[in-house]
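Thread: "does anyone have the structure for this chain?"

Original post by V.I.:
We have the sequence but no experimental structure in hand. Need at least a predicted one for the grant figures.
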Amino acid sequence: MCVPLAAVGMGGVLAIKLFGIGMVFAVLADVLVVRVLLGTVVMRLLGRAAWWAPGPLAPFCNRFGIKETDVQADTDRPVPVAV
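Reply from O.Q.:
Generated one for you, tokens below.
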């Protein structure tokens, strides 16, 4: 995302150049501050409360057999490898 915006920042029109450079800094700040730092901190503070599924999702999970479990997956079975 930053590379195309930096290319826009290399344009000849001053308004477009400012827009491109400003967007590069905005994207980098979003990635570094919001997603890396705040996201992981909030997930750590909320613990299990961060991992709840909404009620309307229950029929979907039941239909496709998606469930939460504390049981480890069976690792004794051989895993097929695509060649």
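V.I.: this helps a lot. The CA atoms of residues 2 and 24 lie 5 Å apart.
O.Q.: and The mean pLDDT is 82.
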